[in-house]
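Q: My labmate handed me this sequence with no annotations at all. I'd like to see what the chain might look like in three dimensions before we decide whether it's worth expressing. Could you predict it?
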Amino acid sequence: MSFNSVFLTMFIVFGAALIGGGLITRKWVTDSGDYLLAGREVSLLINVFGVAAIGFAGTSITVVPGLVVSGGFWSSMSFSIAYLLAGLMLYGFVFSKFIRRCGAQTLPEWLGMRFDSRTRIIITITTVLGLLGILANNIVSMAVVISGFTGWNYLLTSSIVFAVFLFFTFAGGFWAVTLTDFMQMVIGLIALPILLIALVAKFGGLSWPAANWPGSAGIMAGGITGTHLPILTLKYPSVLMFFILFGCFLVWGNNYYWLRVASSRSERVAKKSYIYAALLLLLVNYLILQLIGMYTGAASPEAFAMFGKEGTASPFSAFGVILKVVPTVIASFALLAALAASVSTATTAHMGATTTTVRDIYARIFRPNASAKELVRPSKYIMLILGILVWALTFYPGGPLYLFAFANAWLGPPAVLVFLGVFWPRMTKQGAFWGATISILSMMIITILSLLKVWDIASIMHQGAFGLIVSLVLSVVISLLTKPNYYGAKGWKRKPASASAGSQEPVEISEQEIEVLSLISRGYNTLGEITDLMGLDSFDSNTIVESLDKKRLLIRDALSGAGFYSFVLTENGKARLPQTTTAETQIVAEGVTAQDLQIIQAVNAGPESLKSYLKETGYSSLKFSVLVSKLIRTGFLNEGGLLRRKLSLTDAGRALLK
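A: Here is what I predict for the chain of 658 residues:
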């Protein structure tokens, strides 16, 4: 069979699997929490593959082996370390617990609650535009690769790829994206080793590339012409800029990495997902791609324009170059893996843009009182509209290139705001807004000047470095010159000075404030749990908590980091708890309410009983996730299940029913 026939067969099977996954996961969606966050049910293994699937993208398939060809093994490894260790792994260690506890479903939502609504809006707009740029670029890149290999019509190829991913994402939302990521990683983990084995069989063991490397500096230190990657320069490419762009900007300021934490079953799952995904990519996917780059540079140096006059290929087409020397079936499967990687990243970017638009614009401005169930249909329509916009942009001359050029500029400032906002209480809303706004505008201007060939900052530094300097300096300086929120003020103490841990003067509190005090007393002591249980936007739940903090009815665990969103009641706070009891507040055993007991009984009775209980109570997927998580944390329930969460009683849970 010809290459086209084999690849077409594989593509049809892959497309059918994606569509089938969308139809299956469609049944799992009951409200917007399921559609946008998979009900916070994503398990450890699935989320490891989900995070890894973002990293194993069309970009990495071109960049990782391409850097070996152009700069040697250590050039490529520096990119891997910057993105995987300083980006993904550090994100898991530093930010995962904070993201889970703050309750914000999106990055702009958190910026709104930490600073103000205008910061939320401007970052929402720039985030959506940046993600659409990444999405458009992924579709175009993959369509170009496929049409180049097969000779298929570019318009038809890109339209089919787009239609397939839009259908299953529209049907199943984040659940469909999660299932796709799992499938993509499985394909990649099979295809890459097979491709490497084929290269070893054709050329020889791993010592062959080093022995036949044409570069004078050797395979480790230099590319096929002996060039190597600069280290400490703000020009691109360099090791330092890899850390700034791919370790900081691309991960810390990107909404779809935030979503992967927010959708996890627990803090533990979120943290381990990023750590394990980084190690998986570093030691398997990226390492194999680097070895593929070595074989490509040693076997076909004449194919690259940088090597001689006969070559025409860019070093970043190394993955495609090497496919020409392996058997048809292996080349087709490897190309399918590249397609799957691009589709997976595209759907994740699409989901990130949709969630941000729904949560931070539609639900916040147009439907603030809409229930989780009422937001499902608008979420699908918004996803469809954004998808059609991207499809149009893929065919507009220069459109995707302009969007992708702007993408890093738009994703950079949020990374600065996240870091300062999490760890520096003195950061003010004025510093955040003007630091981000001026940085974004300045980077857009210098990008336009570069594209119009008026002036190019690249001779001095990369535009991302310029944006980082502007954003960081302005945010810090303006914050020092303006008034911070109460917890950043010089005289504010986390714990009240009085022995009773609160003011003795009576203060008025609202019904919602009483409800928050009650939730904390029952063990739901993070803002994330409070937000999901009350069904509020985190901006509103945070306002309630700040009011209680200023009234000295609760104490934060810390003034920065994850502890900022964990609380305990003061004695005065405990004194304001409601005296009446309901199923949610009545204590039937130590740490167990009547509501908890009802859930334990429903789990004991079986899945159908649990479904009936959920239908009867009308709990949202996010609220039920919080209730169940507490019972798991306190030792009454066990959880399992690769995709959907499966619950069972522990010995303590069974003892409670006796």
